[in-house]
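Input structure tokens:
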């Protein structure tokens, strides 16, 4: 009987244990399926569903005749889902490093630094060869989490010739990734960094897509679940002529400087060059970026777009402003004469002319033709600093032109109020004399200079410069203009002087002359703080019906009437041959 009781107790205990076990299992199932159901369902989906990002090709950039300035090619990247590859990451990276001929430790460090999202991959190696991509693809069964992705890579057919104009792409920084995440960007995306690529990033980028696929527990593809096709960015057509752009860059060669050629009718830029330049293609891949240090640290600052960012003393091209200021105050006329003995005494200081022997008696047209400093010292004093400042602003200095390129600088025209506040000094006649010939504190950009000479060519109609013509088929250029309040008769007086600069036998700009087209312009030689001066030429043609305006600036280029005028003459000749004149 005691044995029966013992067996009964054992049975009861076992039943209790089984019951407790079932209760625990039931409670755990309830927790997993009800309380934590959404969480574990999400984990399950993540284990079997993979989303492959499909990057949209950027829109292409064309010149005015349809020549490509920027396009894209297909490249192969080796990427990884770190969560899937975690257990065998090091082993897999050793295999991939051997295929790529890379250092495995470098790959491991690169991957560890990047922070992927839930579905985002991390790029292990970018722009690998097709044969390397195929070899990795064949081994993906033994490389869990690793895959080959394709992405478009930017190409620039004009290379250095259009680099400052078109710009280049660069990978996003961590800060940019956080800022742009809401706009659909991800860590591995690239952004336009300069030029058109930056100004029109929103149009060129397009809309990326994705492919949702099902994989097994080994990462092997089972089936496609859905796809969102990427939408290519919009094509952009520029006002620029690629052949002229390339020709100008050849003419600039090793010189430092900038050239801008613009259509007067609508402000469309035909060529915008800066030298030295750089090859935009090197920024498009990891391989190329290893070489870009030579640009970032390069002598002559090749990454700076001197056309819109370079700020320099204007030298004698500013005499156009001085003449307008004096004419506007009624202090001179075209016939007003001053005698140049090679110097002028102003406030007890000698201010010299570039010609030591002097030019003798000069009227306004002769003073323009010979770029006589003494004449314009007197003209500037007659006009006064305030009038010079006002006319400088009227023709486009001391402010942005609004050209559709990033990083434009406003230049600087000094005034009495500025000097009093910044230097704690009064304004002296010597300051006015320096300003009158484009020296002293004055700073202008080449794009401002072309706007000034365009305003002279049109007799008072500043034209806003632009490089974009249309986005796809939609015209996008801003052709708005504003007339100055400068009387037409004053402009015609100045234009007569600009005619003499180029067409007089003793004019400083005669090297810019064409035999069958009348060119008008002004040379400039500006002190640079070094032994060699800066050289300027601004001009337009044909004189009787202006179509093209131009500025040539050569940093430490010597005399404007020699180097800059010679280059301008070559460009006017090309423009005539190409039927722009």
């Amino acid at each position: 009987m005691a044995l029966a009781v013992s067996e009964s107790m054992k049975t009861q205990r076992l039943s209790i244990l089984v019951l407790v076990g079932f209760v625990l299992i039931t409670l755990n199932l309830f927790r997993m399926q009800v309380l934590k159901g959404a969480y574990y369902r999400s984990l399950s989906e993540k284990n079997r569903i993979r989303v492959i990002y499909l990057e949209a090709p950027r829109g292409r950039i064309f010149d005015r005749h349809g020549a490509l300035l920027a396009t894209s090619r297909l490249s192969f990247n080796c990427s990884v889902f770190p969560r899937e590859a975690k257990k065998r990451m090091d082993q897999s990276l050793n295999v991939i490093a051997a295929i790529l001929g890379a250092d495995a430790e470098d790959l491991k460090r690169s991957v560890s630094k990047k922070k992927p999202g839930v579905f985002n991959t991390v790029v292990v190696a970018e722009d690998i060869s097709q044969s390397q991509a195929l070899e990795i693809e064949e081994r993906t069964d033994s490389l869990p989490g690793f895959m080959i992705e394709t992405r478009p890579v930017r190409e620039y057919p004009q290379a250095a010739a259009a680099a400052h104009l078109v710009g280049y792409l660069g990978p996003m920084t961590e800060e940019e990734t956080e800022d742009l995440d809401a706009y659909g960007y991800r860590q591995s995306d690239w952004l336009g960094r300069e030029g058109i690529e930056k100004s029109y990033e929103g149009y060129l980028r397009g809309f990326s897509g994705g492919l949702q696929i099902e994989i097994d527990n080994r990462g092997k593809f089972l089936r496609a679940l859905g796809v969102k096709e990427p939408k290519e960015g919009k094509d952009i057509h520029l006002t620029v002529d690629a052949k002229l752009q390339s020709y100008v860059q050849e003419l600039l060669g090793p010189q430092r400087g900038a050239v801008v050629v613009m259509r007067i009718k609508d402000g469309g830029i035909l060529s915008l060059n800066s030298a030295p330049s750089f090859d935009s293609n090197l920024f498009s891949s990891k391989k190329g970026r290893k070489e870009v240090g030579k640009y970032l640290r390069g002598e002559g600052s090749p990454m700076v777009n001197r056309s819109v960012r370079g700020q320099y003393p204007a030298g004698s091209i500013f005499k156009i402003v001085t003449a307008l200021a004096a004419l506007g105050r009624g202090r001179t006329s075209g016939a007003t004469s001053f005698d140049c003995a090679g110097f002028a005494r102003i406030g007890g200081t000698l201010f010299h002319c570039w010609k030591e022997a002097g030019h003798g008696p000069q009227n306004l047209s002769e003073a323009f033709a010979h770029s006589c400093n003494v004449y314009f010292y007197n003209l500037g004093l007659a006009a006064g600093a305030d009038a010079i400042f006002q006319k400088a602003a009227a023709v486009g200095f001391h402010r942005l032109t609004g050209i559709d390129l990033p990083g434009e600088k406003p230049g600087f025209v000094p005034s009495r109020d500025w000097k009093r506040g910044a230097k704690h000094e009064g304004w002296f006649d010597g300051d006015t004399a320096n300003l009158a010939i484009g020296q002293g504190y004055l700073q202008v950009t080449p794009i401002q200079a072309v706007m000034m000479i365009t305003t002279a060519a049109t007799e008072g109609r500043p034209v806003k410069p632009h490089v974009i013509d249309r986005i796809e088929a939609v015209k996008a250029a801003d052709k708005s203009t504003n007339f100055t309040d400068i009387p037409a008769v004053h402009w015609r007086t100045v234009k007569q002087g600009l005619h003499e600069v180029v067409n007089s036998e003793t004019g400083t700009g005669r090297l810019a002359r064409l035999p069958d087209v009348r060119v008008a312009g002004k040379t400039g030689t500006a002190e640079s703080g070094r032994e060699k001066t800066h050289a300027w030429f601004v001009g337009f043609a044909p004189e009787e019906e202006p179509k093209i305006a131009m500025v040539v600036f050569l940093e430490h280029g010597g005399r404007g009437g020699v180097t800059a005028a010679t280059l301008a003459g070559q460009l006017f000749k090309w423009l005539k041959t190409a039927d722009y004149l």
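The first helix runs from residue 2 to 35. The chain has 23 helices and 21 strands.
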